[in-house]
Design goal:
By secondary structure, the chain is of the alpha+beta class. α4 runs antiparallel to α5. The strands form 2 sheets. The chain has a 5-stranded mixed sheet, covered by helices on one side. The protein has 8 helices and 7 strands; from the N terminus they run αααββααββαβαββα. The C terminus is likely disordered. β6 and β7 form a beta hairpin. The chain has a domain of 146 residues: GAF domain (Beta-Lactamase), CATH 3.30.450. The longest helix is centred in the first third of the chain and has 45 residues.
Amino acid sequence: MSENKNESLEKVVADFLRKHPNFLKNNPEVLESQQLLHSSGVAASLIERQVKLLREKNEEVNRQLSHLIHVASENEQLMSRLHQLTIELMSTSDMSEFFQHLSDSLLKDFNADIFRVCLFDTSLKIDIDDELADSIRLVSREDSDVQKFKDHLEKGETVCGRLSQTKLDFLFDSRAKWVQSTALMPLGKNGAHGLMAIGSSDPARFYPGMGTLFLELLADVVCTTLANVEPEEQRRSA
């Protein structure tokens, strides 16, 4: 019974203080007489405890603000690089040079290890030399391995994180064993043109929820280039 009375009394006091937030301010002698036992066992006044809590909250807010500033700075640099890269790619008429430059830029800008683009139009005339062989693959959309990416293609969204081993093996061949995280981008609506992937040996480099605007805009650049090239190749083969 006594314990229940104490709990009831504590609730009354707590409710009173909530309804009268200026009570301790108007009665400083009450505030100064209160002490809280720190986890270390050292007693501290209520004011000291409040100051400590406010300081901790302030430090957390500063950390969050610093993180937002860092992210904003990174995004600004990426968008600037996207603009520059788009101009560079637009001035490249040869598709082999286009994808080689794209590969070099992505690996540098994203500090990644592997780049691979899978194009579904196997009639494209691209000179895939030894240097470019690891970056480009021409494959039919009906290929059984491509069907493993059906959900990714239908959603049409960039996916970041870990992929299954079978998907990694298809995308990166013998180098798949080194890939710990991947950014996977469908090219065009429902992946009409293909897939583009960037792999990293760092498990934390690409993760679910990370910003993908830069990659999606770059995928649009690739799609626009492919859409302009395909009719030309069709005219040449006619």
